[in-house]
Structures are given as structure tokens and as C-alpha cells.
Amino acid sequence: MDRTEWYLEYEIKKNRPGLLGDISSLLGMLSFNIVTINGIEKSRRVMLILSKFDENITRLQSILDTMDTIEVRKIRKPKLRDRLAVRHGRYIHMDVDDRKLVRFVRDELGLLVDFMAELFKREGHKLIGIRGMPRVGKTESVVAASVSANKRWLFVSSTLLKQTVRSQLVEGEYNANNIYIIDGVVSKSRANEKHWELIREVMQLPSIKVVEHPDIFVQQTEYDMDDFDYIIELRSHEDEEITYEHVERQQFDQQQGFSMFDF
């Protein structure tokens, strides 16, 4: 019989020596195996556990609810957010009002890469937008996540190494396992109609597309923000405001004959 994986999260109310050992012993008596355990903040513990018998999860919760030393926060089959919490010892920050909006700061790049890699491993179409100021690590994180997910990445438009504005793909580049990366600013400012024809073609592929600066991208296309499955915001620090003043300034510089794109 296959084992079922569960996510357990509890908060310590009265810390004392041997508390984790007591919980581990209880899990053992109920035939649970601990896969991974981690701490979050100062008083919260998260773990992935395995059991052959789903009914034991009800017994476990009823026993844990009688303990005055802990408070059970969640017992459920693990979601992506749960797995990342156990792996990294911190939560991803999802907007309360908009569940597809996920926020990161630069010292969470490892968590961000892991989050995107898990999304990239899933089959089928997915449209992901990523916002952030210049040089915060957007493109590098997408590339790193592609490598982690064992996927090939392709720049449709980008400024990572040099300005890239493509108007066609070769035969081997049409693949549902590829990650297609589009820079909304570069596409809007520098592209011709052939480039936009390619973008429309790419958007129809059953694959994952990542759009940097999605707010700029939707100004030039028939797509809107509701079409995105996830919007990721990456900041240097929590209080940083993401603006597009630098976009207007660089567009002005381009009109004056300069090429100053550095996203």
C-alpha cells in the first residue's frame, strides 16, 4: 500500500526540553514516518510526514489538540507553499486579496528560484509575470529556475547579455518543455511587427512563458493581467516601490539616439 504524504504545522505555546521527542514518539506510535522537519520564526515547526493509513491523521490531530504545549496550525496534504516552507524554513508571501500575487525580496532569491522551478516542472501552458526594478535579479532567477527544473530557456526578448529581439525561432526551439522569456519593455520599445507575430505564436504554445515587466507587456498586446497565472514581485528590500520611471527615461534616451537598456 502506498504511503500518503501530509503536512503538519504547529506553534509551540510552552517550550520545554523533550517536546519534539514527545511529538516524534507519538508520530512513531501512529505509524507515521517523518520525511523532513524545519523551524519557522522562533516558535513554529513544520514537517512532512508519511502514513499508510489516512484514518491515522484524524487520530493524530485529536491527540495533538489535547496538548497544551502546542497549537496545531495545519494538517493537510502538502501544497507547493508547504513544501517550500519545510525546505527553506520560511513562507512565500502570497497576497491575501490576490492569491496569484507572490512577493520576494532579494535575500530570498534561493526561495524564489525554488518556487519558480517547481512551477516550471509542471506540464502545460502557464503564463508568469515578474516585476522588479533594474538589476534586482529577475532574469537571472528565471534562468536559474529553468536550470533547476532541467528545462531549456529561450529569450524572445531580453537584455541579460546583450539586447535580444527575435523575429523567428528555428525548428528545434519549438518545444513544450522550453521556457520562453519575454521582456515587456524591450518588446514594446524596440520590436517590429515580425517580433510581435513571433510573440503571438509563442503565446499559443502549450508551454511556460515568463514575461518580465508584465504591466508594460499588456499595454502592447491583447492580453491583460487576468491572463497571468502568477505575478511575482521581486524587490531589493520590502519597502521598495516598483515604478516605471526608468522605462520612460530610457525610452527618451533611445529617441535621442542612445541605447541604455539595462534591465
Short description:
Helices cover 34% and strands 26% of the residues. The protein has 263 residues and is α/β, with parallel strands linked by helices.
How would the blueprint of this fold be written?
Blueprint lengths: L3 E9 L6 H11 L3 E8 L3 E8 L3 H10 L5 E7 L3 H9 L4 E2 L6 E5 L3 H12 L5 E6 L6 H11 L4 E3 L1 E2 L5 E2 L13 E5 H7 L2 H11 L4 E5 L1 H7 L9 E6 L9 H11 L8
Parallel strand pairs: 6-13, 7-12, 7-13, 8-11, 11-12
Antiparallel strand pairs: 1-3, 1-4, 2-3, 5-6, 9-10
Helix pairs in contact: 3-4, 4-5, 6-8
Describe, in plain words, how this protein is organized in 3D.
With about 260 residues, the chain is of the alpha/beta class. The protein folds into two domains: about 80 residues, Alpha-Beta Plaits (2-Layer Sandwich); about 160 residues, Rossmann fold (3-Layer(aba) Sandwich), CATH 3.40.50. It contains nine helices and 13 strands. Helix 3 runs antiparallel to helix 4 and helix 6 packs parallel to helix 8. The longest helix has 12 residues.
Write a concise keyword list for the protein shown above.
13 strands, Rossmann fold, alpha/beta, 263 residues, Alpha-Beta Plaits, single chain, elongated, disordered C terminus, 4-stranded antiparallel sheet
Structure classification? alpha/beta
How would you describe the shape? elongated
Number of domains: 2
- CATH fold category name of the largest domain: Rossmann fold
Proportion in β-strands: 25-35%
What order do the strands of the largest sheet run in, or round the barrel if closed?
A: 5-6-13-7-12-11-8
Fraction of helical residues: 25-40%
Report low-confidence residues grouped into runs of 5 or more: 254-263
> Would you list the SSEs in sequence order as H and E?
EHEEHEHEEHEHEEEEHHEHEH
Radius of gyration: 23 Å
